[in-house]
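2024-03-11 09:14:02 DEBUG pipeline.ingest accepted 1 chain
2024-03-11 09:14:02 DEBUG pipeline.ingest length=280
2024-03-11 09:14:03 DEBUG pipeline.predict start
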Amino acid sequence: FVPSPASGAKPFSSPFRIEIPYVGEALVLAGILLVGVIVSFLIYVYQNNEAAKKIGHVLLKLSLVAQILAIALLVSGIKSTTDVSSKLQTQLAQNPSQYTIAGKEIASKQGLSAQEFAALAPTQFETTGKQYVKTNGDKMFLSLNTNPVELAGLITALAGTFFVILFGFRTEKLRERLPSLEALDGLMYKTACLAFAGLAMLLITGAIWANESWGRPWGFDSKETGALVAWLTYAAFLHTRISRGWSGRSSAYFAVLGFLLVIFPYLGVSYLLPGLHSYA
């Protein structure tokens, strides 16, 4: 954040992103452990392998610990970091491309037309980013409110993992209270239809916004591509469902894959892949 020049006004978000040490690594570890959980339980389901089931439970608990650690490191890092300017300078020295990314974000908010934005050279974006740091670097501070959606996503994932572990101890009672498999299958289909429509709207409105801000509707940015892959996955899911008559377990696995591909562009791109959306 950067304080607002107006007295009493809310601070505004900076286009730069400070990396909190070990948070990304902890989240990657949690993700790998969750993949191990899925593999273990698939082995258990198909081969009735009790050892795989036990391994899956252990990996699930370790993933919960990794997620708790990641959130704790994130909150602690934000609360304890006071020398934001020096940390940002060190980070930019290692990865100067962030100047260009931030410069594009700054330019996109200056009311330029699509033609004016497209005419800007990368060096101009870099200069804009450097000037922003020079002017506002000493004023920057970290806050949990910078990206509340991201923090909420991490907490939601943590809560989801916790409830999976909690319900795992009483699966018989849980199964008794669940709707029938046919009802769950129908609910999954309806949810996938909503997800497909929502992703379509996201791609369309995102392309319109990108054309207004960056002078092009599509640039194969990592988050753009990830969203497209997720949409195509749900399209394939609906195709196999409607045309091929898929249902039950095979259709459910397809839906889970689509859900994971929706989550990855948000968290995966933000922490692992470079691009115009790596700040969001």
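2024-03-11 09:14:41 DEBUG pipeline.report The CA atoms of residues 12 and 69 lie 28 Å apart.
2024-03-11 09:14:41 DEBUG pipeline.predict end
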